[in-house]
Amino acid sequence: MSTVSLRLNDRDDALIRKYAEIHNMDLSSFIRQAVLEKIEDEYDLTLFDKVWEQEKDEERISHEQVKRELGL
Predict the structure, then answer these.
(1) Running DSSP on this structure, what letter comes out for residue 57?
(2) How high is the mean pLDDT in each 10-residue block of the chain (72 residues)?
(3) Widest CA span of the chain, in angstroms?
(4) InterPro entries per the record (predicted)?
């Protein structure tokens, strides 16, 4: 397991520590979770953009049209 140092001003340090405390998390777990969620969000957006570009010119139909076609 590795260790990462993070430099924060006093205000940011207090904010992050208080947020983690409010959510019953230790500081290390909170920071780890926040960083991993940021990476996942960016990956999801990149994947969405890629799929959107690939499929942007394909024909789309509405939910109402699907319901009509299925007799619902």
Answers:
(1) T
(2) 93 98 96 96 94 86 92 91
(3) 63
(4) DUF6290 (IPR046257)
Closest CA to 35 of 58, 11, 6: 6
Instruction: Report d(CA 15, CA 34) in Å as an integer.
Output: 14
* DSSP count for the chain of H helices, then E strands: 3, 0
Instruction: In whole angstroms, give the CA distance from residue 31 to residue 5.
Output: 11
Rounded Cα–Cα distance for residues 42 and 35 (Å): 11
- Tell me the pTM: 0.67
Tokens of 67: 């319901």
Token output for 50: 């890629």
